[in-house]
Hints:
By secondary structure, the chain is an all-alpha fold. 85% of the residues lie in helices and 0% in strands. It has four helices and no strands. Helix 1 packs antiparallel against helix 2. The chain is elongated. The relative contact order is 0.12.
Amino acid sequence: MLVFLKTLHFISLWAAGGLGVGGWVLQHVHKRNGQRPSVEVVQSIRMMGVLALIAVLVLWITGYLLSGMIYGNLPSSGAFHVKLTGATLILICSLGANLETLRSMRAGTPPRAGLMAVYAWTVRVSLLVVLFGAAAAFSGN
């Protein structure tokens, strides 16, 4: 079971990152070329966002289960809690970006650029926090 959870955790990490980067690349290329994305591209970006959110949720669930199996509960180190805070911000921003995209699709307007930029930068900074927190939290083990 431990190997299965670790594998699922790694695949979820890979999927969340890849889908997030892929959606950003699609948006960036269209914006740089001054083109409006087609309906199919918008739907693809939306689906990538939903799949990334699912991957982040699976990442959270498997991470919690792995902590329980390996440590008995969540580690109490400060570095682990920093990592957990970064992961929480990523989850909140992923959910917020998906809700904003849904709102904009229903209203027939583009997503609010300022809000989406805040989400994007928060996720980028939080990823660095998670990486450094993970390195510090698990360097002693």
